[in-house]
User: Which sequence fits this backbone?
């Protein structure tokens, strides 16, 4: 369920904007650092994830260092895990720093998006909303951590199941998110945000002792 919500959110967010020289950008700031807490609650599971987020090159490079704690209610079990998610241009990499294993795959949107103009991108977004039977509403701006955020609410309904996602965006970066649907409630809250803070290059480098396997034929996005 949580993976579905994450996919829906990614498709709806205005992730790509263009500058005068047509360089692909995800955010309207070049560098940044954030700390975020994500909580997921359902009848079977409760989880809390604490993240450190490093952003460079207008979001073309972004790494999330995560610690997740899960309460699996069905079997009365609590466990924890660490993970790292890295976006580096056209590559998306995920690995476990404890087991030293991970996967990488090509970003299915990278090449397509980089060759499209703004009008075509907007049409693509409308097609995605139609595919998920989604309507979006712009709400009054709100202040989060001292930043003026655009607020958008997206409502989708598939097979009679409704999902509502509310997003607070600052220069295309999500400072807050709330979603409810299919028996799952998710909240994402950025507690620290430092616009303009340039990360050291090493945070975008996978350690040499981590084994990365390339994933092919991604079932969600077939070329």
Assistant:
């Amino acid at each position: 369920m949580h993976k579905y919500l994450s996919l829906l959110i990614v498709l709806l967010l205005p992730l790509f904007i263009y500058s005068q020289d047509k360089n692909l950008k995800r955010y309207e700031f070049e560098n940044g650092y954030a700390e975020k807490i994500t909580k997921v609650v359902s009848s079977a599971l409760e989880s809390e994830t604490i993240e450190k987020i490093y952003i460079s090159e207008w979001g073309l490079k972004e790494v999330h260092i995560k610690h997740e704690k899960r309460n699996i209610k069905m079997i009365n079990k609590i466990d924890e895990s660490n993970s790292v998610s890295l976006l580096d241009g056209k590559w998306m990499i995920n690995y476990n720093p404890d087991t030293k294993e991970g996967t990488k795959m090509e970003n299915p949107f990278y090449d397509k998006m980089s060759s499209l103009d703004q009008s075509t991108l907007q049409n693509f977004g409308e097609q995605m909303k139609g595919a998920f039977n989604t309507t979006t509403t712009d709400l009054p701006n709100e202040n989060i951590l001292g930043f003026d955020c655009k607020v958008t609410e997206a409502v989708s309904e598939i097979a009679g199941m409704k999902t509502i996602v509310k997003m607070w965006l600052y220069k295309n970066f999500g400072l807050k998110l709330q979603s409810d649907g299919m028996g799952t409630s998710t909240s994402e809250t950025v507690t620290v945000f430092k616009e303009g803070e340039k990360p050291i290059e090493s945070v975008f480098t996978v350690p040499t002792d981590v084994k990365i396997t390339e994933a092919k034929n991604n079932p969600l996005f077939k070329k």
Remarks:
- Residues 118-131 form the longest helix (14 residues).
- The two ends are 24 Å apart (CA to CA).
- Confidence is low (pLDDT under 50) at residues 1-12, 14-22, 219-223.
- The chain is about 15% helix and 55% strand.
